[in-house]
Write a structure and sequence with these properties.
This protein is mainly beta. It has helices spanning 261-264, 304-312, and strands at residues 11-13, 31-39, 45-52, 58-65, 73-74, 94-102, 107-116, 119-127, 134-140, 144-149, 158-166, 169-170, 172-177, 184-190, 203-205, 210-212, 215-226, 229-239, 247-250, 272-279, 285-292, 296-303. Strands 10, 11, 12, 13 and 14 form a five-stranded antiparallel beta sheet that branches. Strands 15, 16, 17, 18 and 19 form a five-stranded antiparallel beta sheet that branches. Strands 1-22-21-20 form a four-stranded antiparallel beta sheet. It starts with 10 loop residues before the first strand and ends with a helix. The chain is built from two helices and 22 strands. It has a single domain (16-312), classed as Tachylectin-2, Chain A, CATH 2.115.10.
């Protein structure tokens, strides 16, 4: 008889994990992880993966699947390369994309980390087809990362969730813009906790916000420093529909963390780091795509209804 766990399991790993590794790539790479995710109009799932080459620098490469699980077709060359000549903030690569389809623009907005001499900053690029990209350039100066655009305006402005580093730690903020290039009205959304909590001192957005009837569901990562290194785990909060900078509820416990061997051991041990998710046709099933140990891509599934019910019980 299997012992009963003393906690709710809100995300379940796909038994065929990992779903993508460096061995799947059509050109030489070191590791593949932290993919942004979206559903294309024809139902195809697209993962825009962070791919680290054997110099240690990252670019982005698209993998497509009809069912979002297997049968991946991978671009034969990098989909979006760093452009250090035109954008010196990308000197040491581009990382961790998060994808939002913005209906007003008729395009996908890709928020990613540009890594240059000043440190990591947030950049934006727009695309219709993941073949051609319009770069908006650096929109949040270093040190800042873990960013995603909301799919529609807030108070007449585009809204960006992001994670600047400050003297007090790393917290989740929201900023507004009239044009995707000039940003202001910065507001704190979710502070990192203090002390011994699993999400003390450093938190950041994981996939883009998920819109529900109850509000914006935010899956976020918390980083706990230990004597043997950092632990990256996933938590959840609910933000108000009309005021996404207002947190309605926040879970005390983490809901997903490194347990499987491919999450516990890799280039960076003990990391589960989602940058993208898609929703099933039922409007409830979340497919969460995440980087495992900064080495491969894995998949877990959860239920919006179950997560919201768990939050209400906190």
């Amino acid at each position: 008889m299997t012992p009963k766990r003393g906690y709710d399991v809100l995300f379940r790993r796909y038994e065929g994990n990992p779903i993508l590794t460096a061995a799947d790539w059509p050109y030489p790479v070191h590791s593949v992880f932290n993919p942004g995710a979206t559903k294309l109009p024809d139902g195809t799932t697209l993962l825009l993966c962070r791919v680290e080459d054997r110099r240690g620098l990252s670019h982005l490469c698209a993998a497509r699947s009809a069912n979002g699980v297997d049968g991946w077709t991978i671009d034969s060359e990098p989909t979006l390369r760093a452009d250090p000549e035109g954008h010196p903030e990308e000197l040491w690569g581009i990382e961790d994309p998060r994808i939002t389809f913005v209906e007003e623009l008729g395009r996908y907005a890709v928020a990613y980390t540009a890594f240059g001499k000043a440190g990591p900053g947030v950049s934006l690029a727009l695309t219709e087809d993941f073949r051609r990209f319009e770069r908006c350039g650096l929109v949040m100066q270093p040190d800042d990362k873990d960013a995603a655009l909301l799919p529609r305006r807030v108070d007449g402005s585009f809204a960006l969730i992001h994670r600047p580093m400050t003297d007090s730690g790393a917290h989740v903020w929201m900023s507004l813009s009239p044009d995707l290039r000039n940003w202001g009205s910065h507001k704190l959304v979710l502070p990192a906790r203090k002390g011994g909590w699993w999400d003390a001192n450093k938190v950041g957005l994981s996939p883009p916000l998920i819109e529900t009837d109850a509000g914006w569901l935010m899956l976020y990562h918390g980083v706990r420093s230990t004597a043997s290194g950092c632990l990256y785990r996933l938590g959840v909060a609910l933000l108000a529909h009309d005021q996404p900078d207002h947190c309605l509820a926040r879970g005390d416990a983490w809901i997903f963390g490194p347990e499987a061997p491919y999450e516990r051991e890799g280039d960076v041990d003990n990391v589960t780091f989602p940058c993208g998710c898609t929703l099933g046709e039922d409007g409830d099933t979340i497919r969460l795509y995440y980087g495992a140990a900064d080495t491969c891509v894995a998949l877990a599934t959860g239920s919006i209804r179950q997560i919201l019910a768990w939050l209400r019980e906190q």
